[in-house]
Amino acid sequence: MSLFLSHDSSLRYWLTKTGDEAVPDVAPVCDLERASASSRELGTSFLPVDYSAENPVHVLVSDPACLHSSSMLIPHLWTGPLPVGAFNELSGANYVSSPEFTFLQTSAKRSFLESLEVGLYLCGTFSIGDEGRGYVGGRRCLTTPEALASFLGRCTGAYGAKKARASLRYVLARAASPMEVLLILAFTLPPRLGGWGFPEIVPNEQIAVDEHLREVAGTGYFVGDIYIPSVRGDVEFDSEEFHTGRWRADHTQARRNVLEVMGIKTMSATWRQINTFEKFKTFIWMVKERFGLPHRDYTPKETVAQISLYEQLADFRRKLF
Fold it and tell me: Can you say how many angstroms the Cα of residue 53 is from the centroid of all Cα atoms in its chain?
């Protein structure tokens, strides 16, 4: 028998994976006939996620007779055919839902904004702590919006697929931190969903440095946190953790100077500049002013949505799993 990790357990597995950890192979052919929801099986299995009564293991089963939760184990029923790429292989005979399948599973149980947030994290280039929040370090993207769309296309009618497809419209690749997720959603979502409706953005875009400026820049390209191609504008979030000290300050200023000479407008923010909604709203206004983007008034309903988006994503106590 095998355990098939799913839902919050597979989300924990993927989002806490660090840059030096190997990604397991995709299971070529897989079915749930051998799926177990046995506490005895759990006790003898080596799993790559911690679990407790407060954080039980979520598994997928195909037999309704297995739907008996225990203090350590929560089974979920899947009776349809399994799409190709649904699971990755773990050690022993166990499996973990793939990032794409995890996105579908978590979308079914979460709000539209939470589904969208999970998509950005799965397509991002950073890992978070085992407590379900924070920033641990960088890693490669686990999946892409295109891969998520392809997988959902093989899950027509599945529970949660409609919501997952709707949120996928706003999922972008390569967000590099939780704060970048906040900025990306604030920029890209329409006002009715809590955003400010910016033009198309590209997270962490490589910006080639003009050849005669490379000696000053010390590199052949910069990576713009949030690049807006239509206005040649770059928005940076300067984390105090990574932008302190004289060398960092000198590097940041040299970078800004080079970009400005190349005709790329820059704006940067630290957490202290955006740690309340009113500050954040002012920062958004400044970005639009700097980049020559039109301002507009927002309805009371749109403002409520903007406040809700900010408060949810800027709440450092909130956990994703």
Answer: 27
Predicted local confidence at residue 176, as pLDDT: 96
Instruction: Look up tokens 């507009």; give the residue.
Output: 296
Best CA proximity match to 99, nearest among 136, 77, 124: 124
Token reading at 251: 């590097």
Reduce the secondary structure of the chain to three states and give it as a string: CECEECHHHHHHHHHCCCCCCCCCCECCCCCCCCECCCHHHHHHCCCCCCCCCCCCEEEEECCHHHCCCCCCEEEEECCCCCCCCCEEECCCCCEEECHHHHHHHHHHHCCHHHHHHHHHHHCCCEECCCCCCCCCEECCCCCCHHHHHHHHHCCCCCCCHHHHHHHHCCCCCCCCCHHHHHHHHHHHCCHHHCCCCCCCCEEEEEEECCHHHHHHHCCCEEEEEEEEHHHCEEEEECCCCCCCCHHHHHHHHHHHHHHHHCCCEEEEECHHHCCCHHHHHHHHHHHHHHHCCCCCCCCHHHHHHHHHHHHHHCCCCCCCC
150: left (phi over 0), alpha (psi -120 to 50) or beta: alpha
For residue 115, count other CB atoms closer than 10 A to its CB: 23
Strands 73-77 and 87-89, sheet pairing: unpaired
Contacts of 65 (CB under 8 A, 6+ apart): none
Measured CA angle at 266 (ends 262, 268), to 5 deg: 150
Encode pLDDT of 49-65 as tens digits: 989 999 999 999 999 99
- Dihedral sign from CA coordinates of 299, 300, 301, 305: positive
Taken in order 282, 304, 270, 219, is the CA torsion positive or negative? Answer: negative
Q: Is 102 exposed, middle or buried (0-12, 13-18, 19+ CB in 10 A)?
A: buried
User: What is the C-alpha separation between 103 and 171, in angstroms, rounded?
Assistant: 11
In this structure, what are the phi and psi dihedrals at residue 268, rounded to the nearest 5 degrees? Answer: -135, 155
How does pLDDT run across 229-272, given as a tens digit for each residue?
A: 999 999 999 875 444 444 344 567 889 999 999 999 999 999 99
